[in-house]
Amino acid sequence: MDEHAGRRPKGLGKRAWVTTKLVRRVLRGLAWSRFVHVTVIGRDLVPATGPVIVASNHISMLDAVFLWGALRRRAIAIAMAELWSWPVVGWLVRRLGQIPVVRRDSDSGQAAMSQAETILRHGGVLIIYPEGRLVGPGEQEPYKPGVAKLALATGVRIVPVGTRGTDRVLPMRRVRGDGKAFDRSQRVTIRFGEPIDPGEFDDAEKLLEVLRSRIEELGSDELGGELA
Predict the structure, then answer these.
(1) How many angstroms separate the CA atoms of 100 and 110, rounded?
(2) How far is CA 54 from CA 57, 76, 173, 194, in A?
(3) DSSP string for residues in 22-45
(4) Strand order in the sheet with 37-41
(5) 159 by DSSP, 3-state: which?
(6) How does residue 228 score in pLDDT terms, banded at 50, 70 and 90?
(7) CA–CA distance from 165 to each of 57, 70, 107 (Å)?
(8) Residues contacting residue 128 through CB under 8 Å, at least 6 positions apart
(9) Burial grade of 90 (CB within 10 A; 0-12, 13-18, 19 or more)
(10) Exposure string over 161-195, b if 16+ CB within 10 A, otherwise e
């Protein structure tokens, strides 16, 4: 552990780990039962130990569930603060020590980045969605620089992830029209890419550009893989 890391975050404690294992067991049971068809590719590219940032595209409210469930390590995500007021979900994100952020609130964003750095200083896995919000089909959203600045400040590698199909399982209300609110017949693919070393970049903008390119590439390929 980094000697300057401070107190160990709740999300890396024993209680959070027990809860993580229980919830993932349920999620994997659903995957194996084909309740939802899930394929995971390149999971072994996530380092087995040490700090790592996992960055993914964001196309559905289900993204975090599938990505978090696909990992083999405990992980803490930066998530919208509204979740903390939801029944059941609010209890779960508190129990797991997730990091809330109020959108379009710079103070909240800075506080979230500070907590995220503490997670990394303690050797944890951080999940982050650089777009900062759900992005619908055909939309473009600039990546927020926080993920690149965090990687450069800590020297922690970023594992890019491309998520496909979650937006068809649970489409955003504003884009689904008269379609199904939940369609479990759709297939979901979570594809991990090679880690990006921030030491190879001299500024956040260049790192962010490469990260976006990698995530878009991973999210556009139709490849086979192993069942989650």
Answers:
(1) 11
(2) 10, 10, 27, 11
(3) HHHHHHHHHHHTTSSEEEEE-GGG
(4) 99-101, 76-80, 125-128, 52-56, 158-164, 187-192, 37-41, 226-227
(5) strand
(6) very low
(7) 12, 15, 33
(8) 53, 54, 55, 77, 78, 116, 146, 147, 150
(9) middle
(10) bbbbbbbbbbbeeeebeeeeeeeeebebbbbbbeb
Identify the H or E element spanning 217.
helix 204-220
Q: What span, in angstroms and rounded, lies between the C-alpha atoms of 202 and 215?
A: 20
With H, G, I as helix, E, B as strand and everything else as coil, classify residue 63. helix
Joined tokens for residue 135: 């992005």
Can you read off the two tokens belonging to residue 83? 């979740």
DSSP state of 144: P
For the stretch 153-191, pLDDT in tens is 999 999 999 999 999 999 888 778 777 888 989 999 999
